[in-house]
Structures are given as structure tokens and as C-alpha cells.
Amino acid sequence: MLYNYGSINIDHVYRVPHLVRPGETLASYAHSVGLGGKGANQSLALARAGGQVTHWGNLNARDQWARNLLADAGVKVDHVNDIDGPSGHAIIQVDDQAENSILLFPGANHIYDRNDLKALIAGTSPGSWLLLQNECSALADAIELAHEAGLKVAFNPAPMSDAVRELPLQYCDLLFVNKGEAAWLANVAEDVSPQQLLDALDAQLPGCQLVLTLGGEGAWYQYDGMRHFQPALPVKAVDTTAAGDTFIGYYLAAMQEEADIPACLALAATAAALGVQRSGAADSIPFRAEVDDAFNAGRFDACDA
């Protein structure tokens, strides 16, 4: 089983010709409201991929439609709680080049404390996975308690912040990072090669599986001296908002199926490529049948490097 202690946000998405500049007032030509938050996106991707996931999180009672959307996809939501305060929410700009800019308010995602997490982890079994992102409170407690309970920890440190460097990352078993996050963690320049980034991270976190995503440049896996590269699929992006979350959810679902690393990477890359061709966060995450069709039609094989 995989447990996801993850953010649930209500996303307000605005389509704009370009991202708003300092001091500028810009008219949006489209607006939509939907489910978001890196945690919810990753749980939804996992479930749509056919994986098994239990979500831990909080929502304002008025936003039960978001909980229902997760449940309808197959996410176990017994521990998604109603609260009186505001849900987490985000203001997202998406421009005509499919780039985005996000303003985030954590709200209900910052309610859990160490005692809450201790109670949740007490209901898990050793060997299960705990998935984390950097949008919820008490992450250091979550990592430490999970490690003590014999859980494996998968961490996506997004959005990156200085606080991530203070977390007990030595207890992480699997780390998902993009190029900027990897450079930040490894304290190296962002323009170094992917191989140099992987070397620097491996020196910091020996024994941790590393998945480095590079958007249109593909993705890398490294563990115990082994490396694999997955080319990106050549598609025209419309909106990249949940691409990384889609990749992570599908990768973990393939891992639950005991697929090998090249297959995990290829399935995840195919799902992400389908997702970036659609607008929105949760709405852009494809279903497994769509991904399998695209995957079987002509995937890009991962390779050793």
C-alpha cells in the first residue's frame, strides 16, 4: 500500500497572453476552478494509472466536491478530513507558451502536527510507502516517524524552499526532482549536466533512488551505480501545470506493478506527454487506457547510460 500525505488545493486558473509582470494589470481571457495541489494531483494520477493509494489531508467542508473527485477515481479518502478553516488554494497563470506561474496559500494543508501524523502512521504496515511533497506541515516529523515505523519514503521536494535542506533526507528511499530542485539540493549551478547533478545528489544521499525529470529533455534514474535515461515524447505543450505530478503518479503505479525501471520511466513519460497537451491540473491527468494506447503505439525506450 502507498500512503500520500499530500496537499489538496482548489485551483483558480487564468489563461493570459503572458505572465503578469511587476506593476502590471493584465486581463485574463479564460478562468476555471478545479482540483489541484501536488498531493491531490499525484494521488489522482496514481489512481487513474491503476495504483492503490490512501490520501491523508484536509479540506474545508464546502469543498467536498474535491474529495468526491478523488474518491471517484479510486483514491481511498477515509483520512481526508473536513475542517472549518479555508482549504488550500492556488492562483495559477498559464500563458500562450504553456508556461505557468503559481501563487499558493496553504490553508488546510498546514494543520497536521507530529501527533496527528503519529496516529496515522500507527495504522500502516512496515514496508509500505509514504509519499510526500513540500506543501504540507510537519514534514520532518513525517519522514522521521515513517522511517521509525519501517515505511519507505518517496519525496518530491516541490515547491523547493530553504527548509528542504533541513529535513532528514537521509531517510528518503526515492527522490523525485526536476533540474532546478536538484541543483538547489546539491548546491551546484543549474546549468551543469544531468550526469553532474546525479553525481552531486548521489554523494549527498547515497542509497537513495533518484529520478531527475527534465521536461522536454526527458528523465533520468540513478541508483546503486545504475543509470537509465528516458527521452521525452515530442509533443506541443498546452499547459505544463501537473506534468511532474502525472509523471510521479504513473511511475509509482508502475512500480506497484513491479515493472522494471525502464518500463516505469517510459509509462510515466507517456502519461506526462499526454497531460501537457491539455489544460488544467487534475483535468489534464490522463486515464490508464489512454496512456496504454499511446505507450503501445510507439514509446521511447529508456536506455542505460
Short description:
With 305 residues, the protein is α/β, with parallel strands linked by helices. It has 9 helices and 14 strands.
Keywords:
305 residues, alpha/beta, 10-stranded mixed β-sheet, 14 strands, 26% strand
Descriptive report:
The chain has a ten-stranded mixed β-sheet, sandwiched between helices. It has a four-stranded mixed β-sheet with strand order 3-2-6-7. It is built from nine helices and 14 strands. By secondary structure, it is of the alpha/beta class.
Quaternary organization: single chain
Q: Could you state the order of secondary-structure elements as H and E?
A: EEEHEHEEEHEHEEHHEEEHHHE
Strand residue percentage: 25-35%
Distance between the termini: 31 Å
Question: Strand pairing plus helix content: what structural class?
Answer: alpha/beta
